[in-house]
């Protein structure tokens, strides 16, 4: 029995020593390296709305920090579980993550939208309008516990990488894609299908981006101060401005790479002309369309209830 108590004492002492040592280190900030414009890796550095927000907040709080990419999104979450990193710059809230991370107040909404092949739009006023159709979504995706349950119980849904999902819609073997707004804008450009798809007007639901701190981090007690910073920045509209600016930066990089990899001089010249002419960017339009308006989103209501909600919403606003 004494040996057991002694062993437990040693383990606890080691954990306290490690935590004490970490308290003297800079706060380690990381995020999803493949989620522009919120967070993505560019030239070996993590950039985007999340890293920019974390930088501003931590500098205001005079907290030493390091921002770095620490692997895939799965690896980032695992690092938060074991306390190897302190802060994740953009995470949705769910029950599993709440077990090992403390959450800030939300700083930016992320509409979950329905994408269809161009010319194949259908009325979408409730989740039930998806029943009987074939849907696709990205592997490992979650859209909130309530909508996830509805999908699992009511819909014909298949999960696959974004590229295959867009291909299935193009081939007509899928009727719709459920996807967050930001990857919808980004991947429709990356896969060169922006002219082949359209976004249904009503968001299916709404997610929120949060800053999170690992519950094993010695900086966890900073959350109240971080929340005050976020609240003030939201009041000033800073996060929406950041989203637009970061999208523009990503789009410029995308266009430069597109020109660089042009297969022929004629194609390169055509892209240069488009660039010089300042062609209208539908991605920026869609970004503003969903994040700047206060349009009611769905929460599982039927058509009559949802339309009543829209009517009341219009009277208020």
Order of helices and strands: HEEEEHEHEHEEEHEHEHEEHHHHH
Helix content: 40-55%
- First-residue to last-residue Cα separation: 69 Å
Total number of helices: 12
Which shape, going by the Cα principal axes?
globular
Report what the structure shows.
With 317 residues, the protein is α/β, with parallel strands linked by helices. It is built from twelve helices and 13 strands. Strands 1, 5, 6, 7, 8, 9, 10, 11, 12 and 13 form a ten-stranded mixed sheet that branches. 33% of the residues are buried.
How are the secondary structure elements laid out?
Layout: H1 2-23, E1 27-30, E2 34-35, E3 39-42, E4 45-47, H2 49-60, E5 65-67, H3 73-82, E6 87-91, H4 95-98, E7 101-103, E8 108-117, E9 134-138, H5 145-154, E10 156-160, H6 162-171, E11 176-180, H7 181-190, E12 197-199, E13 205-214, H8 223-235, H9 238-260, H10 265-276, H11 282-291, H12 303-316
Parallel strand pairs: 1-5, 1-6, 9-10, 9-11
Antiparallel strand pairs: 2-3, 3-4, 6-13, 7-13, 8-11, 8-12, 8-13
Helix pairs in contact: 7-11, 9-10, 9-11
